[in-house]
Amino acid sequence: MQSKEEIIKLKNELVEYGKQISSSDLVVGPGGNISARIGDVVYLSPSGMSFMDCCPDDYVGVDINTLETVDGNRKPTSEISMHLECYRVRPDIGAIIHTHPPYAIGVVNAGGVIGPMFPDFVIFVGDEVPIIDFYLPSTMELARAVGKKIEKRDVVLMKLHGLLTVGKHLKEAFVRTNLVEASAKIYFISKSIGAPIYYDMQQRYDIINLDSEKWRKEFLKG
């Protein structure tokens, strides 16, 4: 049983990161959705509301086992099935962020690949970002396709739709969101000049084992 203080803290974090997502132009209007898990309850952003308009009480608590709303009066995001599927396949996930980053969507829709082109990408995202074909939003087909990728990865791009990232907490998921969008911008600039290049396996191995990058990974644990 989670304390009232822990729940209030989590809701405040959801509000904070929701506003950061909006101010970073990762969504437009009421687009995108986020969630965070505390025990058996997942707190999700409400349906039809902009992150900028949300307050702590707007976030909806849903029991992951019964699917019943246990906290809040609003309707949870229509993408609830996608969120719950990710939590089911990965018990280590503590937070999920789904956004519509313009560069990342543009690159993948045009057939591009977002891969490791700078050190932090290697540490927090890994190899090239996995991609799934278009599925109708808010469907179980989409939820299952996303969950299948998230079983082994922390990010997935959905053609003609958007990006989903996961983490132990909202901070980690948000960092991954920004890293993917930054990489998409680098890809776009590289492609406009010539051919994008990526780290090879040895370079990735060397980066992962840098003391400085190990420290950054430890920093994100908090």
Overview of this structure, please?
- The structure is a single chain.
- By secondary structure, the chain is of the alpha+beta class.
- It has one domain (4-219): Class II aldolase/adducin N-terminal domain (L-fuculose-1-phosphate Aldolase, 3-Layer(aba) Sandwich), CATH 3.40.225.10.
- Helices cover 43% and strands 15% of the residues.
- The chain has eight helices and eight strands, in the order αββββαβααβαββααα.
- Strands 4-3-2-1-5-8-7-6 form an eight-stranded mixed beta sheet, with helices on both faces.
- The longest helix has 24 residues, at 170-193.
- It starts with a helix and ends with a helix.
Brief digest:
With 222 residues, this protein is α+β, with helices and mostly antiparallel strands. Helix content is 43%, strand content 15%.
Shape: globular
The assembly state of the depicted protein chains is: single chain
Mean pLDDT: 95
Rounded to the nearest angstrom, the distance between the terminal CA atoms is 22 Å
- Compute the number of strand runs: 8
Number of helices: 8
Task: Label the CATH architecture.
Answer: 3-Layer(aba) Sandwich
Q: Give Rg in angstroms.
A: 17 Å
What is the helical fraction, as a range of percent? 40-55%
Q: Would you give the CATH topology?
A: L-fuculose-1-phosphate Aldolase
Order of helices and strands: HEEEEHEHHEHEEHHH
Strand content: 15-25%
Poorly predicted sequence stretches spanning 5 or more consecutive residues? none
SS content category: alpha+beta
What characterizes the major β-sheet? 8 strands, mixed
Structural domains: how many: 1
In CATH's first tier, which class applies?
A: Alpha Beta
CATH superfamily: Class II aldolase/adducin N-terminal domain
| Major sheet: arrangement of strands | 4-3-2-1-5-8-7-6
